[in-house]
Design goal:
The chain starts with a helix and ends with a helix. The chain is of the alpha+beta class. The protein has helices at 2-10, 13-131, 133-137, 169-183, 209-226, 251-257, 274-280, and strands spanning 142-146, 149-155, 189-195, 234-240, 259-265. The chain contains seven helices and five strands, in the order αααββαβαβαβα. The protein has a five-stranded mixed β-sheet with strand order 1-2-5-3-4. Among the domains are: 79-131; 132-267, OmpA-like domain (60s Ribosomal Protein L30, Chain: A).
Length: 282
């Protein structure tokens, strides 16, 4: 500083002024440059701050997008899981529905078969009534259904004398007429059942009603075979007084219980479950 002072002390005033002006100009220029740099620095800092804010905003937005993407993926996975579960349930329901439809179709088929068989039995019964119409109208017999079986019933009072097992002439005619009808039913079997009232019998030939009912049933069987019924189609059975159809306390009841029943033996092969029973029985 002292040097500058001494230097300026030796410099003429004109030169000094010029030098001072030049120094002042340089100082002013320096000040201007400094201010310009400060402004540029401030501008750069502002730009940097703005870029940093944009970057932070971008990072925040990216974070939001990433979280949204993860949420969407999770939701998609849940939806796929739910869809898979619903699909499996739907497949299961569809299988159950198919099984249910199959069961219904099978049940309908079986119902149709049972209905067809029932209609066939009704038609057979009507046919039997038609075949026996003449004998029914003559009062010699009646046709009925007992325990699901078709039964031709004849009162023994017109067939046999009391305590006897020989057919009367009227009885022979009646049984011969029945035999002619039964002989036309070559695909069926018949069981002749003897029934009595509860009045006991005890003779050398008939120690009880069992023997009396049995002897009467056998006589009817022989008469039927003589009328054309094959011996392989017919059998005899005795029920004595064990199957009354009326009260034995009255004469009318006793008369109703003294009877011969010719049962049309059901075809077991037409009954439900016959095939299964056949397999079980070997």
């Amino acid at each position: 500083m002292l040097t500058l002072v001494l230097l300026f002390a030796c410099v003429p005033k004109k030169d000094f002024d010029a030098l001072s002006a030049e120094l002042a100009a340089e100082k002013a220029a320096h000040t201007t440059d400094s201010e310009s740099w400060s402004k540029e620095k401030s501008s750069m800092e502002a730009t940097l701050a703005e870029e940093r804010a944009k970057l932070e905003e971008a990072r925040t937005a990216e974070t939001h997008r990433r979280l949204a993407l993860e949420a969407a993926k999770k939701e998609l996975a849940e939806a796929e899981g739910k869809w898979s579960s619903e699909k499996a349930e739907l497949v299961s329901d569809r299988s159950k529905l198919k099984a249910s439809v199959a069961e219904m179709e099978s049940a309908l088929t079986q119902a149709a078969e049972r209905r067809a068989k029932a209609e066939a039995r009704v038609a057979e019964f009507r046919d039997l009534l038609l075949r026996f119409k003449k004998l029914i109208d003559a009062g010699q017999l009646r046709v009925k259904i007992v325990d699901g079986r078709m039964v031709v019933e004849l009162a023994t009072d017109i067939l046999f004398a009391s305590g006897k097992a020989e057919l009367s002439d009227q009885g022979k005619t009646a049984i011969a007429g029945v035999g002619a009808v039964l002989a036309s039913l070559s695909d069926r079997s018949f069981q002749v059942e003897g029934h009595t009232d509860n009045v006991p019998i005890q003779t050398d030939r008939f120690p009880s009603n069992w023997e009396l009912a049995s002897a009467r049933a056998i006589v009817v069987v022989k008469t039927l075979t003589a009328a054309g019924v094959k011996s392989t189609q017919v059998s005899a059975a005795s029920f004595a007084d064990t199957h009354p159809v009326a009260d034995n306390a009255t004469p009318e009841g006793k008369k109703s219980n003294r009877r011969i029943e010719i049962v049309v033996v059901p075809d077991l092969s037409q009954l439900p479950g016959f095939d299964e029973l056949k397999r079980v029985g070997g």
